[in-house]
Amino acid sequence: MEVVDITLIGSGVASTLTVIEIFRELLNSLTGKKITIAIIEKNHEFWKGIPYGSRSSVNALTITSVYDFINENERRPFFEWLKKNKDEWAGWYREQGGLTAARWLDNNLPRIDNEEWETVYVPRFFFGNYIREKVLALLKAMEEKQLAEVRLIHAEATDIKQKEGVYEIVLEQPDLTTSVVRSRKVVIAAGSAPVRKMCDLTIDGVVYINDIYEPSVNDNIKRLEAAFEQTGNEPNNNVLIIGSNASSIEWLYLLEGLPSLRKLVNKTVIISPSGSLPIHISTEALTEHPTPNIDRIKAGEKYTIKTLSDAAAADIKLALKDGANMDYVATVIGSTLALMEPLGEQAKKEFYCIYGIKLRDMFRRSGPEYKSVANLLMDAEEATVLKGRFTNAEPSGNSTILHYQDAAGQPQTYPLAFKAVINCSGSDNLDHSSSRLLYNVVNNNLCKMNMSGKGIEVNDKFEAAPNLYVMGPLLAGNVNKLIHFWQLENASRLTYLAPFLAKELLAFAAIESVY
Ligand SMILES: Cc1cc2nc3c(=O)[nH]c(=O)nc-3n(C[C@H](O)[C@H](O)[C@H](O)COP(=O)(O)OP(=O)(O)OC[C@H]3O[C@@H](n4cnc5c(N)ncnc54)[C@H](O)[C@@H]3O)c2cc1C
Fold it and tell me: Does 49 lie in the same domain as 72?
């Protein structure tokens, strides 16, 4: 059976950015050798992934301003693309995005004209369209020069096995038939691990959405509308959201722009241990960034990675006092990383896999559009955030009742019943993942889960095993000279890493035997 040179599993931006860099390298080096590349994607859409393609709403915005969202190497070309294609995307977006789009365009087109990039939070599909256009143009050039043959395979990879010196990737096609692809090099670029299932609701009339992006946000909106319309205006027409991360605030933003659904929903209750939604971003230029807790350590106080992280947490609180001031947060993190250096490798691993993630959760943030809409719905008492830990959702008639633990750990029952539950919680550890691929590669010891439970351990060549690479959020929690991030759910960091991975994949010595 034929052996492909490089196979990428997943066709989100982590994969696409890597493919772009592979193409650039090949076009620049003009080796004359034709390589074969396979890209396996379980969704029908290639090149965009979950946040930047049709599984998200067209109205979903970037978490940070477009200036921070785009890596500095890509800023100029992306901003030029935005301006050059403005009439085309603005017209399309106005037609597709309803009230939310009209308001966004009114507020943001003048800012784009004035290049006020630090104040614009763009609809994420812009980036998906940009990146797709870019990869397709390079693909055409590659094919004309016969430098690569690229195969797009619509299937889910369910396992990877080592056989006779190459990897065999087991695939399940949409019609549930199976096949294998054999490949010399494989990249797992499957995004973050899927969300943890929170309950098994099978009550007639109650909608349980385990993953809002599956099959797509628009499909889930239609499901909710249909269910709520059927029941009419009942007092139980409430929505429970489990978790208060970026997707929860995004949901409120989308809901506010859907008058037909909004009028059917009495109340949206968001339950989370933090009891708060992501905070607003403050761009105030502060003359000072006081770090009194870190300063005590700098002055000679004895410390461990735990006490250093506690000190960082106390100083980050100061940086969040009037909104998330990210320059101030960067000062705290910078000092923390410097003080971590003498503590050794184990301490670093603990920081990137455990303490750093806790610090990151403190400064979850979102832009002014999301925040103002969330505040509007809270002020109108259409939405509320409940501080507590979800225990279970108990069937009750044709709705469901929320049981939870309050901030003091006491069991409580929420006074309203719900017609819909949306799971916006985190993912399972990889050794329990509902992704068959991730479950298998970890439990069959092909890859090692790192201390965070959410990432795969790799070396500084991105390898989890010889010629088996990882790209995207699954790299989080690694500490080596190239990869040292506690989270990689970040387009800018992926853009930074992609050229390094492309070079590793094209290290021809390792794949020479193909020619
Ligand atoms: C809703 C949302 C909003 C976000 N907003 C921002 C933002 O504003 N700014 C920012 O910097 N980052 C944001 N992120 C972070 C984002 O995850 C990264 O920026 C980036 O999209 C990760 O890319 P990826 O390709 O690794 O993941 P994904 O986009 O998840 O793509 C992975 C792809 O792999 C496919 N796949 C998975 N398993 C298999 C399999 N077994 N076989 C075949 N195919 C498979 C999936 O279908 C998917 O298309 C957001 C993430 C989400 C989910």
Answer: no
Q: What is the span of the domain harbouring residue 156?
A: 3-56+126-193+430-514
Q: Give the number of residues written for the chain.
A: 515
CA-proximal residue: ligand 1, atom 39 (nearest): 190
Buried b (16+ CB within 10 A) or exposed e, 247-284: bbbbbbbbbbbbeebeebbbbbbbbbeeeebbbbbbee
By alpha-carbon position, which residue is closest to atom 10 of ligand 1? 490
Determine the pLDDT at residue 31. Answer: 66
**Domain-terminating residue out of 423, 438, 457:** 423
**Stated pTM of the model:** 0.94
Q: Which of 87-91, 97-101, 114-118, 227-231 comes out lowest in average pLDDT?
A: 227-231
CA of 54 relative to ligand 1 center, distance in Å = 12
Residue 66 beta carbon below 6 angstroms from any ligand 1 atom: no
Q: Is 51 touching ligand 1 by the criterion CB < 6 Å?
A: yes
346 and 299 in a common domain: yes
- Point out the ligand 1 atom lying closest to the alpha carbon of residue 488: 18
- Bridge partner list, 268: 239, 383
| Token reading at 8 | 């990428």
* 439 is a domain residue: yes
Evaluate whether residue 198 is within a structural domain: no
The share of the chain scoring above pLDDT 90, in percent, equals: 83
Q: Indicate the angle between helix axes 86-96 and 98-113, nearest 10 degrees.
A: 160
pLDDT digits (tens, 9 = 90+) for 377-402: 999 999 999 999 999 999 888 899 99
Ligand 1 in reach of 497 Cβ (< 6 A): no
Ligand 1 site-directed mutation target among 9, 47, 50, 122, most atoms within 8 Å of CB: 50
The reply to whether ligand 1 has any atom less than 6 angstroms from the CB of 48 is no
Predicted confidence at residue 513, as pLDDT, reads 38
- What tens digit of pLDDT does each residue of 32-51 get? 678 999 999 999 999 999 99
pLDDT at residue number 178: 98
Distance 75 CA to ligand 1 centre (A): 21
H-type helices in 166-321, by residue range? 217-231, 246-256, 259-262, 292-298, 305-319
Does residue 244 line the site of ligand 1, with CB under 6 A? no
